[in-house]
């Protein structure tokens, strides 16, 4: 029997072995079930290792490590699917990135607020940092996912080559500026705050931080866990596609399901932070994940399309644009006061439920 000190080291290894044995193969019902269990175990292990790394490096670096790691692997998954089936993946990047934005703005923030406000508590967070992050997410999403539906240079919801390159460069510059602000110039804007609004310098007031060796080991296992999560999600995707088709749902819903799986580690980490009274850490995880998803995915796709002759439709439809505007407005109203109640949690979760329902029934 695995002890608490060992299970989160063993499960990523088992999940990675399962990925190596099942990648590119058709699975039966038992195989799908086993892979699903290992996928869930890899998610839990990723959260455990992410918390160890975050405790060592402190906020906001810990949130940044998890967000960037997940996004890099998510980009790799998108590019892999584009290369293997370019004719079927024209809208894959759009569906995945937009799902990530809505999951983070509505789902992760809503879940974090729900757990942070239990027992009639009114948690506080840093409005300056969270507001700047939200503004960056809104700008990146509008430029890369909304404007392609408005421009006229290319047919359909697409950018011209020049427009795509401009959007890619702008996304990298804006993301880089945010990271510099978060980690160097105004790091205190992204640290957890106490009930009186004072900054909490450390993420854990009682436990000593892990050693460098432990942190590096956990970082390695974190990356292995995330590779296993994304890879096993890809292995499960045929079964997900079959289930989606059997249920009569649109094919685009597959991207939503995969995005939910990929973002599970960040969701659980955000909820755990909220339960410990570190709502700012949850905000960092949610908004940082959305930002990294756009700021890294779009430039990677812009480079890939220079070498792969695959259509790339980034523009959102009217329903998705409406949901995005609603999510941004509600998020702004939540962030501006620097504190929240259970009502804001319900509103965010309601928007998330609407996104999932309309993704199933457009």
TrEMBL record:
The chain crosses the membrane at residues 34-54, 61-85, 97-117, 129-150, 162-181, 213-233, 253-273, 285-308, 314-336, 343-360. Keywords: Membrane, Transmembrane, Transmembrane helix. It comes from the Bacteria. GO terms for molecular function: potassium:proton antiporter activity; sodium:proton antiporter activity. Residues 30-183, 218-359 form the Sodium/calcium exchanger membrane region domain. It is found in: Membrane. InterPro entries: Alkaline_pH_Ca-Antiporter, NaCa_Exmemb, NCX_ion-bd_dom_sf. It is a multi-pass membrane protein. GO terms for cellular component: plasma membrane. Pfam families: Na_Ca_ex (PF01699). This is Putative cation transporter.
